[in-house]
């Protein structure tokens, strides 16, 4: 059994991690650290965990086998500056602090970008992981096969909708129920922070990519999930595109290529990404759906943990969608 510590235990991603790790057959949760909830039962915050005898801790065990950082963006670096861990402790950061190449080396630690469908071999040999962003995961999985084959020849246009949990637990004007319910809006048009890691990955696979990825992020009036559609010029046929994607994801445990139109309920509460392809004239439309809290955050973090420790990639992640 490996010993796990979670930092920032009161947020949505930490709640998902706890739910997954409680049932992981090779994991024991050593501590769940939260300065604001120390001493309280975890179920007082994550109420679906009622009956689980886990309390938030104000103490940190620096010798745990793996540490998950579920802190707000910009706080992971500060936390690691203030707290030392064993050289044997593997760390996965769920913020955006280490996702870009300019930030991947920190205090002598090299963080590997934790998108398994892109970096599986590196993840298996890594000690430190930068977990990808949720939008970035959905969009990159839609683009990787094209970039790998040097087939991104024009601008990419992306429209993606995320649920309310994508904004985290802190309230703002646009996260209150009265604002979000029966409502729809876009935000950070063309400038969303996940574009940096998306462009970084695309240029890693296709160095001559010089076009724009035009990303329109939207807020949906549902709790969880990301529904992303993107299109770009593609000179091949639909059958050629399907073959390309099927070959690229042939050994990907959590990516499914569907011949049927897809919808969000197919992935909510799972670690899956489902992709659908459609050809219209000279354009290829790719639809990508994930659960933003699982494949877009905590599920992917557990997937990376499994790879780092030599477990089956699917261990603890055999989750099924709930339609009703």
Could you name the key traits of this structure?
324 residues; alpha/beta; Rossmann fold; Dihydrodipicolinate Reductase, domain 2; seven-stranded parallel beta sheet; seven-stranded mixed beta sheet; 8 helices; N-acetyl-gamma-glutamyl-phosphate reductase; N-acetyl-gamma-glutamyl-phosphate reductase activity; EC 1.2.1.38
CATH topology of the largest domain: Dihydrodipicolinate Reductase, domain 2
Q: Give the count of structural domains.
A: 2
According to DSSP, the number of beta strands is: 16
- Count of helices? 8
What is the level-2 CATH architecture name of the largest domain? 2-Layer Sandwich
Q: DSSP strand (E) fraction?
A: 15-25%
Low-confidence stretches: none
- CATH homolog superfamily of the largest domain: Dihydrodipicolinate Reductase, domain 2
Order of helices and strands: EHEEEHEEEEHEHEHEHEEHEEEH
Shape from CA axes? Answer: globular
What is the element layout, followed by pairings?
Layout: E1 2-7, H1 12-22, E2 27-33, E3 56-57, E4 66-69, H2 75-82, E5 90-93, E6 105-106, E7 109-110, E8 112-113, H3 116-124, E9 128-130, H4 134-148, E10 156-162, H5 177-180, E11 185-186, H6 194-205, E12 213-219, E13 226-233, H7 238-248, E14 255-258, E15 273-280, E16 283-290, H8 298-308
Parallel strand pairs: 1-2, 1-4, 2-3, 4-5, 5-9, 8-9, 10-12, 14-15
Antiparallel strand pairs: 6-7, 10-13, 11-12, 13-16, 15-16
């Amino acid at each position: 059994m490996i010993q796990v510590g979670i930092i920032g235990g009161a947020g949505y991603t930490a709640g998902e991690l706890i739910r997954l790790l409680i049932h992981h057959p090779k994991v024991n949760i050593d501590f769940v650290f939260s300065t604001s909830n120390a001493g309280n039962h975890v179920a007082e915050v994550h109420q679906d965990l009622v009956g689980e005898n886990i309390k938030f801790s104000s103490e940190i065990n620096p010798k745990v086998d793996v540490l998950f950082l579920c802190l707000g963006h910009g706080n992971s670096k500060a936390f690691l500056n203030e707290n030392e861990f064993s050289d044997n402790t593997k760390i996965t950061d769920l913020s955006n602090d280490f996702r870009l190449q300019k930030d991947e080396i920190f205090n002598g630690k090299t963080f590997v970008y934790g998108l398994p469908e892109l970096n599986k071999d590196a993840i298996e040999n890594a000690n430190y992981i930068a977990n990808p962003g949720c939008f970035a995961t959905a969009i990159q999985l839609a683009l990787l096969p094209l970039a790998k084959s040097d087939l991104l020849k024009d601008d990419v246009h992306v429209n993606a909708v995320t649920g309310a949990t994508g904004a985290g637990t802190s309230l703002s004007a646009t996260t209150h129920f009265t604002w979000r319910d029966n409502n729809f809006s876009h935000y950070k048009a063309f400038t969303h922070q996940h574009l940096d890691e998306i462009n970084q990955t695309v240029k890693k696979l296709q160095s001559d990519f010089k076009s724009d990825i035009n990303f329109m992020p939207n807020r949906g009036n549902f709790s969880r999930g990301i529904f992303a559609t993107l299109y770009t010029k593609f000179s091949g046929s639909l059958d050629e595109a399907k073959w390309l994607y099927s070959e690229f994801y042939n050994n990907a445990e959590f990516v499914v290529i569907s011949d049927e139109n897809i919808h969000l309920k197919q992935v909510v509460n799972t670690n899956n990404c489902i992709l659908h392809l459609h050809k219209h004239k000279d354009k290829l439309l790719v639809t990508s759906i994930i659960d933003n809290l699982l494949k877009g955050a905590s599920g992917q973090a557990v997937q990376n943990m499994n790879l780092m420790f030599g477990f089956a990639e699917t261990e603890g992640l055999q989750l099924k969608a709930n339609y009703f």
